[in-house]
Amino acid sequence: MKKIAILQSSYIPWKGYFDIIHDVDLFLYFDDVQFTPRDWRSRNRIKTPQGLYWLTVPTGSNRNRRICDVILTNMEWGRKHWENLRHHYGKAPYFKNYCGFLEDIYLGRNWESLSELNQYLTTKISQDFLGINTEFHDSRNYHGEGQKQELILDLVKKSGAGLYLSGPSAKSYIEPSRFDEIGVQLVFKSYDGYPEYSQLYPPFEHAVTILDLLFQTGPDAPWYIWGWRETGPTIL
After folding, report:
1. Do the beta carbons of residue 43 and residue 58 sit within 8 Å?
2. Model-level pTM greater than 0.85?
3. Which pick of 14, 46, 92, 185 has the fewest CB atoms within 10 Å?
4. What percentage of the chain has pLDDT greater than the value 90?
5. Pairing state of beta strands 135-138 and 26-29?
């Protein structure tokens, strides 16, 4: 049975986002919907000695845009994000493993849009660092029709999937009966039970960017996202 998830792109998302990606065959970036400022679309958190700190991509004040229409015009923020990551994580066990990738992201490229940045980061981290084999597409290529739940249902039907994996927050507006009507199994993802790992700056916090986990655990990162459900971590 083909499994699908449909989510708005996020800036260097937390591990739960990648857990969903790992669980499906097809992942659709859902960026032709309303952009929400001061949200996970354009920012995420890192750990610092002073506590949690937001890395925010400047997106301007226009609220009347889709995510895919948010244009990035100044890359000065990229240098600042890189400096913050290097300063706060430079002593992490696996920081050097990802230096080349991140320097290219923040210093070597000019990103034209928020969608382009988010989708590239998420796809590359999934494939290159977490070993995920999921297929990625943009929902715009499926020419979905309708609004809100109707749009999701239309995209699922057009994808040919038999199972739709949703984040738990969607329980507030999704009607399971509508998925029954089109013969699609609806599953809500659970984020419960993630094991803690050693973070540089206690107390422990799950809701931070995936980079925190990568810097601290390196090749064992997949175990802390989904592997713990089946087996133990790698013994070196």
Report:
1. no
2. yes
3. 185
4. 87
5. parallel
